[in-house]
């Protein structure tokens, strides 16, 4: 959800309740466009972050402690001079604009009490943090906007601070819902989403879409195609939304990509109207802090994973091209036996073939039906030479087939391995897990070891994922191929159960049986985890093979994670998020 006027109201209400009257103890500026204030209020210490980052502008409480520069920036020193030690009187915003003002009472150089204002403008790439004196003059800002950048609104020291141009819209509290579809409002609106967006102040496109969704009306339906029932549903949904805003009935939450709750999609002030996985929070600040920390972590993981991912994808592409080339070569020599047959038939009929003949029609005595075949000949060569020509072609084709078949098998094995690495990368949730896969690829010769990134022998390897089944059995899931090998070949007992998706890259899964019979419910849960931690995570009816560990072997020279197995059975499962989360959240104590 964009940081719109509704989010602004919600966060201002929260911060006023928690911080009004508090003392600003310290001010830091960890980033060029971000400041952090340590505030003591009502017996508690709070860390308030204000960011003017173009991608993530925001204002909220945070628990994240960033490293600060050794020398504080100029704006930070000015903040310390003018507001450090001051009292935060209150926090306000104006007419649902994304402009938040912190009114701060402090003592000036003469010992007099004065009020400074810190304005946080949350407006995408135009976001800014501006410090004003009591006369509404700009002391300084994290971003300077001179006349070359904007001829309408300069943000420079000593200039008078001006608000951005106001929007010609109704405040939510003043919106006459019954008149939302009148002729004046629908001018220029193509659909209900645009109508609400153009009419009500503080609403983002997402908010308008969510209102339409809760009304059960597609947000892009042309205005002219809406019937009276559709309009009434939208009015009711809009009225409910406005009532929540007026009564401050907010229910902050984060919507996640899946139930692992590791990859956030967005944050919201209200619980979403559509079916998605989300987690509710008491405070919007907590939701915002968690959202931006997770997103930052995932972005950093993505950056750290980038070069590894590129190596793996390039390797997969190379293997796929080689596979296509080898299959084409095998197709070219697929009729090699015919070459040998022609040579033998020419030899058997050598005295019947006339000199200078362009072809020979001879009886194929290898055929059950004894039909005749026509054999092309080189008219300038003898029958004996033609026979030798076919034998040489056969010998070459046979050799090509043997070599290419071997190369194809090696390439397919490498492709299977790299696809398994790609799957494991997709499941990485920490830097250590990425580093372990990087080291695996270094060991396999895909990445060159650099001195500065030399493997730290002191690093303790990460542990496999551990779950407890509904029946109390321990289930272990490997997070990378080296871990898969260790789990299957070293950790697991011979009578433990081993599971893996059938012909699909994925993790090794072990059920620790302790010589007990494994119930079907535990087997189903372990198979679900195997499917979930595979490249078939989003598929239905995923086949999962299972057998005892004693039936699993690692061929000599096989790459990490590559094994062969026998005497197995197969179970089909669908790794639905709800099922997986039920297993993840199972608190059953391991007692088998």
Automatic annotation (TrEMBL):
GO BP term, pick one: rescue of stalled ribosome
Start and end residues of each NFACT RNA-binding domain: 466-562
Sections of the chain in a coiled coil: none
InterPro entries to which the protein is assigned, alphabetical: NFACT_RNA-bd (IPR008532), RQC_Subunit_NEMF (IPR051608), RqcH_bacterial (IPR043682)
Gene Ontology cellular component list: RQC complex
GO MF assignments: ribosomal large subunit binding; rRNA binding; tRNA binding
Alphabetical UniProt keywords: Protein biosynthesis, RNA-binding, rRNA-binding, tRNA-binding
Pfam families to which the protein is assigned, alphabetical: NFACT-R_1 (PF05670), NFACT_N (PF05833)
Function: Key component of the ribosome quality control system (RQC), a ribosome-associated complex that mediates the extraction of incompletely synthesized nascent chains from stalled ribosomes and their subsequent degradation. RqcH recruits Ala-charged tRNA, and with RqcP directs the elongation of stalled nascent chains on 50S ribosomal subunits, leading to non-templated C-terminal alanine extensions (Ala tail). The Ala tail promotes nascent chain degradation. May add between 1 and at least 8 Ala residues. Binds to stalled 50S ribosomal subunits.
Family: Belongs to the NEMF family.
Oligomeric and partner information: Associates with stalled 50S ribosomal subunits. Binds to RqcP.
Protein's name according to its UniProt entry: Rqc2 homolog RqcH
The organism of origin for this protein: Ruminiclostridium cellulolyticum (strain ATCC 35319 / DSM 5812 / JCM 6584 / H10) (Clostridium cellulolyticum)
């Amino acid at each position: 959800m964009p940081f719109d006027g509704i989010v602004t109201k919600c966060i201002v209400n929260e911060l006023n309740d928690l911080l009004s009257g508090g003392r600003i103890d310290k001010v830091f500026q960890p980033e060029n466009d971000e400041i952090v204030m340590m505030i003591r209020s009502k017996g508690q210490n709070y860390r308030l972050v204000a960011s003017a980052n173009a991608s993530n502008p925001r204002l909220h409480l945070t628990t994240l402690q960033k490293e600060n520069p050794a020398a504080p920036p100029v704006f930070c020193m000015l903040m310390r001079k003018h507001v450090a030690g001051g009292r935060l009187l209150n926090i306000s915003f104006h007419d649902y604009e994304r402009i938040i003002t912190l009114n701060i009472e402090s003592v000036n150089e003469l010992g007099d009490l004065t009020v400074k204002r810190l304005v946080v403008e949350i407006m995408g790439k135009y976001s800014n943090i501006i410090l004003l004196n009591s006369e509404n003059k700009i002391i300084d800002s994290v971003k300077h906007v001179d006349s070359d950048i904007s001829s309408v609104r300069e943000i420079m020291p000593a200039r008078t601070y001006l608000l951005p141009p106001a929007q010609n819209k109704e405040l939510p509290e003043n919106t006459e819902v019954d008149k939302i579809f009148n002729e004046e409002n629908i001018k220029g609106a193509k659909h209900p989403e645009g109508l609400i967006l153009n009419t009500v102040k503080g609403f983002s496109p997402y908010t308008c879409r969510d209102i339409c969704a809760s009304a059960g009306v597609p947000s892009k339906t042309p205005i002219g195609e809406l019937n009276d029932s559709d309009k009434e549903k939208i009015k009711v949904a809009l009225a409910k939304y406005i009532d929540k805003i007026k009564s401050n009935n907010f229910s902050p939450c984060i919507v996640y990509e899946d139930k692992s709750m590791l990859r956030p999609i967005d944050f919201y002030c209200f619980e979403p109207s559509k079916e998605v996985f989300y987690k509710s929070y008491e405070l919007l600040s907590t939701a915002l802090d968690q959202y931006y920390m997770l997103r930052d972590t995932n972005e950093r993981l993505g950056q750290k994973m980038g070069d590894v991912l590129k190596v793996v994808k390039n390797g997969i592409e190379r293997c796929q091209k080689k596979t296509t080339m080898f299959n084409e070569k095998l197709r070219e020599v697929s009729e090699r036996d015919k070459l040998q047959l022609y040579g033998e038939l020419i030899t058997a009929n050598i005295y019947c073939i006339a000199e200078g003949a362009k072809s020979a029609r001879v009886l194929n005595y290898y055929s059950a039906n004894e039909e005749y075949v026509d054999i092309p000949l080189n008219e300038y060569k003898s029958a004996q030479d033609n026979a030798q020509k076919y034998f040489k072609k056969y010998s070459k084709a046979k050799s090509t087939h043997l070599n290419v078949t071997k190369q194809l098998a090696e390439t397919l094995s490498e492709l299977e391995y790299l696809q398994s690495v790609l799957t494991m990368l997709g499941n990485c949730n920490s830097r250590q897990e990425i580093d372990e896969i990087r080291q695996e690829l270094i060991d396999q010769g895909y990445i060159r070891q650099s001195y500065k990134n030399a493997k730290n022998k002191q690093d303790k390897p990460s542990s496999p994922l551990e779950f407890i089944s509904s029946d109390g059995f321990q289930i272990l899931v490997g997070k990378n191929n080296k871990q898969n090998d260790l789990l299957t070949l070293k950790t697991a007992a011979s009578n433990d159960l081993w599971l893996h998706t059938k012909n699909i890259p994925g993790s090794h899964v072990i059920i620790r049986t302790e010589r007990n019979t494994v119930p079907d419910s535990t087997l189903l849960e372990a198979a679900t985890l195997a499917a979930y931690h595979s490249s078939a995570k989003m598929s239905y009816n995923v086949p999962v093979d299972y057998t005892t560990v004693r039936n699993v072997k690692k061929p000599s020279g096989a790459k990490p994670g590559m094994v062969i197995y026998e005497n197995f059975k197969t179970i089909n499962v669908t790794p639905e998020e709800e099922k997986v989360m039920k297993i993840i959240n199972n608190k059953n104590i391991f007692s088998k």
